[in-house]
Amino acid sequence: MIVRVQPSAIKGEIVAPASKSSMQRACAAALVRKGTSIISNPGISNDDKAALSIIENLGAKWEMANDKLIVKSEGVKPISNEVNCGESGLSIRMFSPIVALSEKEITVNGKGSLATRPMDFFDEVLPQVGVKINSNGGKLPLKIQGPLQAKDISIDGSLSSQFLTGLLMAYAASNANDVSITVDNLKSKPYIDLTLKVMSDFGLNVPENRNHESFYFSGKPTDANETINYTVEGDWSGGAFLLVAGAIAGDIVVKGLDVFSTQADKAILEALMSCGAKISIEKKQITIGPAQLKAFHFNATDCPDLFPPLVALASYCEGKTVIEGVSRLAHKESNRGLTLQQEFGKMGVEIELQDDLMIVNGSGIIKGATTHSHHDHRIAMACAVAGLKAESEMIIEEAEAISKSYPNFYEHLKQLGASVSSLDKQLN
Known about the structure:
Elements: E1 3-6, E2 12-15, H1 20-32, E3 34-40, H2 46-57, E4 61-65, E5 68-74, E6 82-84, H3 89-99, E7 106-109, H4 120-125, E8 132-134, E9 142-145, E10 153-156, H5 162-173, E11 177-184, H6 189-201, E12 208-210, E13 214-218, E14 228-231, H7 236-249, E15 252-255, H8 268-274, E16 278-281, E17 285-289, E18 297-299, H9 307-315, E19 319-324, H10 336-346, E20 350-354, E21 357-362, E22 370-372, H11 377-386, E23 394-397, H12 409-415, E24 419-422
């Protein structure tokens, strides 16, 4: 799909989408506990749909009723020999240890960029907890056979916190007692805080967090058979694009974002305040509008998904913006450091990559260009936001990539008054 964004002024109110980070964790928690879970504000992205398919194949039953997701589970009892994680990095990393709770051999697969992402973490760790695993040279597909036996282990947390999320869920489900998971160099700590919060909300056996360096399970039993009610948070990752759009192109109000959330991407507020955006933060809404924007310095090591909206923002800031954490970008849907450099270069924005730093030379002048998403949802959204105040039309090829996380994104821009059109009749 090709999407065209014309220079536009935006205004109005919009509700941020549901968080796929929250939704997918909720699906996993609903699976591993026994009983009924009622999930409000369920997500509709492709990654969310992948999580629902996975828990169904692992034995949970679910239905949608009155805009709520109702999940009934007796724990991990697979009804299929295979689960497919689609293109969801979180699902593949979180559900693989949960799959290992079963003594049945299960093939874990995915598609798109997941086929090239490294999964040798599981080759190294799962055998330590009694799990048989056979991978394709550290890549998909994975063949996993448990049952997982919770033991004291040490893992490397430098690649992604998502591997730890899966282990924490699996240890909780296995009624781990008097054991610890020790983690070296843990990245994206706020996402582990989100995992622990979801586990608590679902009544799971939550470990003691010892300064994000170890997680001790004392054997507290999971609250089973009770009905759990959980509301999926608004998504700060998707909401970041809306907030940046407001800072660039017009006064808007964004609702549905919890300012007390543990989501790492809430840090977008720090960047917006640092660059001088006109912003008012209240408990239930954030009002934001354009101002004279200046370059800023931001550490995105713990929130690497913010790089695309940050680059769009920095392009409209006068001066050199420095963003730390480039090393976290290599194994995303695309190699985002290089992809951002390439696509924003087409717009006349010079981006330098120096070790772990990205330097965006902003001028506030963006040229219209024909860009490509590289099948990366966040690249597509960044290009669309950048196009709102470009000198001429911005074209985005393979623009349907947004369906991975925020399928309503272009429609939401249109609701705010942006001129967005496509060969897809839904946007014409």
